[in-house]
């Protein structure tokens, strides 16, 4: 029989304060301070990356004639759009960053 306490779901107040050691495998190890995610920076990078991927992809398909490279850039842009949506979800949930 384990003596562990069951994990509780984080509340909105927990998200507003920030979740320490979130995605940080070394958080608290050897005196390291807990890390917090830079969500706003990730949001801007995802937006800029998706715009640039689509623009360069269109140029490669129309002017360069390299359709396969344009398709690769469109797939990367789709992944960035999904990341953008996930970041918005986390920010609406109240996570700082």
Structure description:
The chain is mostly helical and about 100 residues long. The protein has a domain at about 40-95. About 60% of the residues lie in helices and about 0% in strands. It has three helices and no strands. It has helices spanning about 10-15, 40-65, 65-95. The protein is elongated and about 65 Å long. It starts with 11 loop residues before the first helix and ends with a helix. About 10% of the residues are buried. The mean pLDDT is about 80.
Beta strand count: 0
Radius of gyration: 19 Å
Which H/E pattern describes the elements? HHH
| Number of helical elements | 3
Task: Summarize the amount of helix as a percent range.
Answer: 55-70%
Overview in brief:
With 97 residues, the chain is an all-alpha fold. The protein has three helices and no strands.
Summary keywords:
3 helices, mainly alpha, 97 residues
List the SSEs and their pairings.
Layout lengths: L11 H6 L21 H26 L2 H27 L4
Helix pairs in contact: 2-3
């Amino acid at each position: 029989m384990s003596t562990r306490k069951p994990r509780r779901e984080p509340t909105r107040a927990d998200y507003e304060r920030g979740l320490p050691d979130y995605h940080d495998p070394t958080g608290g190890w050897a005196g390291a301070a807990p890390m917090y995610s830079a969500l706003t920076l990730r949001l801007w990078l995802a937006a800029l990356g998706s715009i640039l991927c689509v623009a360069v992809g269109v140029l490669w398909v129309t002017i360069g004639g390299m359709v396969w490279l344009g398709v690769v850039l469109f797939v990367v842009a789709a992944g960035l759009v999904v990341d953008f949506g996930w970041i918005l979800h986390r920010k609406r949930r109240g996570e700082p960053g």
